[in-house]
Amino acid sequence: VVNGVQTVHPDGKNGHILLTDVVPQNYTQSYFQPRFGLTYSLNPNTVLRLSAGRFSQEPQNYEVEYNSLEPNLAAQLVGFMQFGYNTPFHPAKAQFSNNYDASIEHNFPGTDLGFKFTPYFRWATDQLYETVSIPTLFGVSPSFTAGTERVDGVEFELTKGDFNKNGLSGYLSYTYTNAAEKWSNYAGVPI
C-alpha cells in the first residue's frame, strides 16, 4: 500500500495488475480563450480585417471515462493496460488551437465585381488520437492527448453581381490548405 492506495494484486504475485473501477466524482478543466478582431476601412471600397484567437475543444465523455462498473472490468480495460491505466478514468486534456487570419476585401469602383483574399494559420496542440488500431474485446479504444497540428493556407473569393437584387449574381472561390500533424509515440501502438 502506497499513500493509502493498494498497488499490488492481493495474490501478492509480482506483475499482476490490480484493476479498479474507482473513478473521481468530479473532473474539472478550465480554459483561457482570448480572442481579438480588428476591421479597418481604407476607403468605401476596401476593407482590411485581422483576427486571432485561442480555441479549445473539451474531450468527449468517452475519452475521459468509460462506463465499466461491471464484473468483467479486465475485458473493458485491455486496450488501456499497456499504457499504465488500471481504471476506467483517463484524464484526457482539451485540444487547443491558435488561429490567425488576415484579409483584404475590395469592390472595384463602378462595377459589381469584388474580391476577398485571406491567408490563415492554425497551430493546434494536445490533439486527441483515437487508437482504433489497438485490439480490445468490446471495441473500446483509448484516446490519448498526443498530437500537434500545423495548418496554413489562403482563401480567394471573386464575386459578381448583387445578391440582394434581381439579375445574375455569383461567386467563385478557391482554398489552398497545407497541413501536417505530428504524433507522440506510444509503445506498441502503430501510429
Structure description:
The longest helix is centred in the middle third of the chain and has 9 residues, at 73-81. This protein is elongated. The protein starts with 34 loop residues before the first strand and ends in an 8-residue tail after the last strand. A hairpin with a 5-residue loop joins strand 3 (95-107) and strand 4. It has helices spanning 61-64, 73-81, and strands at 35-43, 46-57, 95-107, 113-130, 143-160, 170-183. It contains two helices and six strands; from the N terminus they run E-E-H-H-E-E-E-E.
What is the CA-based Rg, rounded? 25 Å
Largest sheet, order of strands side by side?
A: 1-2-3-4-5-6
**Overall pLDDT metric:** 79
Biggest sheet: strands, sense, closure? 6 strands, antiparallel
Helix and strand run: EEHHEEEE
% residues in beta strands: 35-45%
Count of helical stretches: 2
Category by helix and strand content: mainly beta
DSSP summary, beta strand count: 6
Helical amount: under 10%
N- to C-terminal separation?
Answer: 36 Å
Low-pLDDT stretches are none
Dominant shape: elongated
Would you kindly provide a brief summary of this structure?
Helices cover 7% and strands 44% of the residues. It has 191 residues and is mainly beta.
